[in-house]
Amino acid sequence: MENKKIPLYLPIVLAVVLVVGMFLGIKLSNNQTLGLLQSNRSGNKIDNLINFLNDNYVDTVNRDKLYQQAIEGMLQSLDPHSSYIPAEDFSEVNDPMTGGFEGIGVEFRLEKDSIVIVNTIPLGPSERVGLRGGDRIVKVGSTLVAGKKITNAQVMKLLKGPKGTKVNISVYRRGTRGLIDFTIIRDRIPINSVDCAYMVQPGVGYIKLNKFAESTIEEFDQSLQKLLKSGMKKLILDLRGNPGGIMQSAIHIADQFLSDGKLIVYTQGQHSPKESAFAKGEGLFKNHPLVVLIDENSASASEILAGAIQDNDRGLIIGRRSFGKGLVQQQLSFKDGSAVRVTIARYYTPTGRCIQRSYKNGTEEYYNDYLKRLTSGELTNADSIKFNHGLKYKTPGGRIVYGGGGIMPDIFVPVETGANFKYYNALINKGVIFEYAFELTDNLRKVYSNKISFDKFNATFKMTPAMFADLIKRGDKDSVKYDPNSAKQMQGKIGLLLKAYIARNIYGDAGFFPVLLEDDKIFDRAKKEIARMK
Fold it and tell me: Fold for domain 194-417?
């Protein structure tokens, strides 16, 4: 089936996230530290070539850059997930894994050359001194930042810093004359793994995990205990969009659901002997109904967890085929602060499945797999999914499962498609709904923030016809051509997303996701299925 024959317009939801790329199923170990790979051993071709270029090339060469490119070239020839991390990028890549960073504790966005505070981290240093959502940062120290062309990276460099250090900022706050000065003492700021955890309905809890970091175990256990105290008897665990992370965190969470002795995962490589992880039988939720949600962006540690649940016949997997990343990385650090993460093993689910997709045709084709799934019809029709019948496995309960490319859910739910999504997606991609939500939030903070609970907001707020008309006008200004029929058909979805963004600006992710889930086909199917489970 060719893409040009059937135009598919897919729903896209954009949230403000920290972009860190695909997490890599990392095994924690004692990192070996080496110097720069600049050995003077005779016969070292890389050293000899770079020395030759340095002495003879027509122009000046950058030795460090040449070494970096040599390392990157070596790793790219191995597999798509072995990678080099430059020293200047290491914190950005590693902070999500450690579960935090050191800074002032704000979520910001750049709005018309202004740094606008979206939210302050609860109990963080900025909240403690009185900084609020909606404040505009005008100066950081003696540096004027308002009205300047400034990037996110530059803002982060100004605001982040070692714990205990001070930073002075001046902000503009609507309704207040002049600037307000704050002195903020930087602190350790958590990057949460649990987006939200709440009771969907009596007896049914919901937890959404966005990654598997060092802090995930504690966060997840606290969320699970909180929901159990609220009367949870059944759980929907959402791993959609979760790119993975630290394997040990996924193993611990799987252990919460499995009885003693059940195999969770095993790893094996050419130079890595087989290592198996088993449940200890001490889990808090090993005897209750469980549904796990996955999609094409659930990868690595997410697939370890989903595979353990599926292969042990422990719960129901709902959604779409996962990414298919089954390689284990180990980190090698260098004295200059850079590092490499190298594949050392593959991981296997309890039935013996290797989830890793083939990468024999190169990295580019490997990462274009989403497009291939789309054009083949896999995302919209379960009958279009092609299984490798040579990699067929059977669970203890008799279910047939397949290896060779991700976890296939027990119940497939296709993506929503149709021509009407073209207008809806254009509004999202241009940031029209997101930016309008932010402006509305500025006007609504006095009404809702700290005065009205999220439940009351959720019950009372609705996009008005005037808001909808204003949003369409803003779309026109941003070159989103108005489509009357599509706008009418998608008005409900547009209004819900607008409401979700406003809820996030005021109440955080604990407000965003419950609103967004009100129109979520996979989540709806999960609620129906879990209601039948005993």
Answer: 2-enoyl-CoA Hydratase; Chain A, domain 1 (3.90.226)
